[in-house]
Amino acid sequence: MDGVTDRWPAGGGLLPAARIPGGELAAVAAAADFAVLPVGAVEWHGPHLPLGTDLILAEGFAGESAAAGPGPRGVLFPAVAYAACPGQTRPWPGTVAIRPEIAVGYLADVIEGIVTAGFPRLLVVNGHDANMSTVRAAMEWVSGRRTASLLLVNWFQLVTPAETAELYGAPPARGHGGAYETSGVLGFDPGAVRLDAATDLPPKPKLPVAHPYVLVESRPDPWQGWSGHVSLASEEAGRTVRALAAERLRETVAAWLAAPLPSPPTADPLPTGGES
Q1: Maximum distance among all alpha carbons in the chain?
Q2: How confident is the model over 235-258, as pLDDT tens digits?
Q3: Using an 8 Å Cβ cutoff, are 76 and 60 in contact?
Q4: How far is CA 140 from CA 105, 111, 114, 126, in A?
């Protein structure tokens, strides 16, 4: 290997962008297969979970996106820590929320900056549901300005509701601060969780329909800035969630890297000359 690719000691995996000397950036970018950006939030998740729950999960799964060893070479950028937060969590202590319009503009600048630095393929690993709309809006804006392939993956969606039902049984587990999210944190940082600090708070039932929908409400009931059956969470479940979601994330990345890069954005799609 040459000196640049030697920066990935195992031949693959992730290299921290913050440690790349400026004079070597162009060579590292040319040798890398993709860049990774974790996006999370600083947000109340109940008395049992840390304020950085979404950051722990975003950074944790971002770190799983390329296994060490022969394989894809990624460059891991520092996480976006602050995000737009829903009205349901903004009043709770420790939540640091920014306005959605600020979030979109900020994310657009960050994403375009990474692409401009020489990384046309950028994987965004999300740990905060509200980021799905703001990150996508930012991606759409950048994709019209730069040649880029921008992949957004939400760790929460990598394990299906049917699979979490197998893990936790009949009670709903996928609420904010519930058993599934709590187990996810336990899979990366067990010491950050206080399982004995919260009692179960059964979430409001979903609508009795099979088709997808988005329901935004001021404050569901019951609700304490979180809801769920925390007693169902465990380190064992967390290890299962981490392994399963990480495997699927790497499968997604491999399929994405195997596809060709897009063409440059079109500056003027309208016909020219005398065509009608």
Answers
A1: 74
A2: 999 999 999 999 999 999 999 999
A3: no
A4: 12, 11, 15, 16
